[in-house]
């Protein structure tokens, strides 16, 4: 019993000694007062301060001089010979040495100036409602840990952290400004638990309608007398379509003849362009799509070597979008879509493009759609050609003139629908060739069919079981 009591007493003494050493060995950011004893001068002490926070240190004997390694990080003021004030100025580390009047060292401190993480964590808990975020100090950096439901919450947490530290340098990098240094020193390790993939379905519908009308008599008339022919010709510079219906009129009497050409055409064209590209991208990344081609064009020629530099220009249906998942069901979407085709008009020998494009940024829920419309183009062209003076004579002038009329109308509509998506099983996906069965010779010849079935394959329900079911036991 005596040995057990002696052992317990020794443990109590050891615990008291350890607690005392920990109390005088370091001061946390939450403590604002420290008293040093006569035997505490041999070792350096770690002192942690918040920005614009202070600490009072009582010295064991009078001090005559103080040395601060980096006054931009921490400041030390001797109010009396035995009372020292430490003030945290900027995030970082510094050393402080105290000397008496004889130059002997009294004490030394390793000062760590850190952010006020308590206030930061309280602000983060109030601002982030779809998860939890905790800010920690690590080697002069601010580390954000936790889980949030969306990328917007992660960005908001980082912006709040940077905002609290704005204008305060986290290091001694003189080449960077305070704001840039703060952004580099905030490490975002937040985990996003929500859906971060967006599938975009775009329907691009374009209708082109053109009407062409031509009516008149071509003034290219010829008069023949035996083997000698005379003509009145008109180059038809005002005409914009030479592929027209033509009929020749003439009169002949022996070796004498007169001929003329009558042009008559009425044409209506309707062109429909439809594309439905579907793309999937991670939040914050850009996905692009092109259904068309590329044509080369010369961009430069080396005068010394004669080497020609060629670049390629894409044309067709183009789509590019960048989604950002803001929260559950809310998507910020930047869309750029373009429909282009090679124009018949060339510039400096290189073809040109006729383009219709739209670019916008919208915010909408998953499954919501918006329409980009109003891309309407209309052009009307008229041309009248004939013989000078004669074509202006009433009634008679119509026999020596030709009138051309063309009208083009184009309307483009784009429907954009984003969806929040998750990966699926390959068994739920189908190919365009699934369900395709080619027709046999008889069906192709007599019925005019080229295939039997073409379309989506519907999953059939499994047949019901009949008879006795269960397990057999011996």
Keywords for this structure?
474 residues; 5-stranded mixed sheet; elongated; mainly beta; disordered C terminus; 7-stranded antiparallel sheet
Strand content: over 45%
Question: What's the main sheet like?
Answer: 7 strands, antiparallel
What is the CA-based Rg, rounded? 44 Å
Helicity range = 10-25%
Cα(first) to Cα(last) distance is 69 Å
Shape: elongated
List how many beta strands DSSP finds: 26
Instruction: Indicate the low-confidence ranges by residue numbers.
Output: 13-30, 168-178, 219-223, 228-244, 469-474
Mean pLDDT: 72
Number of separate helices: 5
The secondary structure category is mainly beta
Pfam families: Secretin, T2SS-T3SS_pil_N
Protein name: Type II and III secretion system protein family protein
GO biological process, one term: protein secretion
InterPro entries: Bact_Secretion_Sys_Channel, GspD/PilQ, T2SS-T3SS_pil_N, T2SS/T3SS_dom
């Amino acid at each position: 019993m005596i040995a057990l009591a002696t052992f317990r007493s020794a443990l109590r003494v050891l615990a008291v000694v350890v607690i005392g050493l920990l109390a005088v060995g370091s001061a946390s950011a939450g403590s604002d007062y420290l008293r040093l004893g006569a035997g505490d001068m041999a070792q350096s002490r770690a002192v942690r301060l918040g920005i614009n926070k202070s600490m009072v240190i009582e010295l064991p004997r009078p001090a005559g001089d103080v040395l601060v390694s980096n006054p931009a990080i921490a400041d030390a003021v001797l109010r009396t010979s035995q009372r020292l004030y430490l003030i945290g100025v900027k995030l970082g580390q510094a050393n402080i040495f105290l000397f008496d009047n004889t130059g002997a060292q009294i004490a030394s401190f390793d000062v760590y100036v850190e952010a006020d993480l308590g206030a930061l964590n309280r602000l983060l808990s109030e601002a982030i409602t779809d998860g939890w975020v905790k800010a920690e100090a690590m080697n002069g950096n601010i580390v954000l840990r936790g889980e949030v439901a969306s990328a917007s919450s992660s960005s908001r947490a980082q912006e709040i952290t940077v905002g609290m530290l704005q204008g305060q340098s986290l290091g001694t990098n003189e080449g960077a400004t305070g704001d840039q240094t703060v952004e580099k020193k905030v490490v975002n390790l937040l985990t996003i638990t929500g859906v971060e993939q967006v599938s975009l379905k775009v329907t691009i519908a374009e209708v082109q309608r053109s009407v062409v009308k031509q009516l008149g008599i071509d003034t290219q008339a010829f008069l023949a007398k035996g083997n000698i022919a005379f003509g009145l010709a008109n180059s038809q510079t005002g005409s914009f379509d030479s592929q027209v219906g033509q009929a020749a009129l003439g009169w002949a009497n022996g070796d004498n003849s007169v001929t003329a050409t009558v042009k008559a055409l009425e044409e209506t064209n309707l062109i429909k362009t439809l594309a439905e590209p579907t793309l999937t991208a991670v939040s914050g990344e850009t996905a692009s799509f092109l259904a068309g081609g590329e044509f080369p064009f010369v961009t430069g020629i080396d005068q010394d070597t004669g080497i020609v530099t060629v670049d390629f220009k894409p044309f067709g249906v183009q789509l590019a979008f960048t989604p950002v998942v803001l929260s559950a069901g809310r998507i910020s979407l930047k869309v750029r879509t373009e429909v282009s085709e090679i124009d018949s008009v060339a510039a400096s020998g290189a073809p040109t493009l006729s383009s219709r494009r739209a670019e916008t940024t919208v915010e909408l829920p998953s499954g919501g759609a918006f329409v980009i419309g109003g891309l309407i183009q209309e052009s009307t062209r008229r041309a009248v050609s004939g013989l000078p003076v004669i074509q202006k004579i009433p009634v008679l002038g119509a026999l020596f003139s030709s009138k051309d009329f063309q009208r083009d109308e184009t309307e483009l509509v784009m429907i954009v629908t984003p969806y929040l998506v998750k990966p699926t099983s390959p068994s739920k996906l189908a190919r365009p060739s699934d369900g395709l069965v080619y027709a046999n010779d008889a069906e192709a010849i007599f019925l005019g069919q080229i295939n039997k079935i073409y379309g989506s394959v519907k999953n059939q329900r499994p047949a019901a079981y009949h008879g006795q079911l269960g397990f057999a036991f011996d």
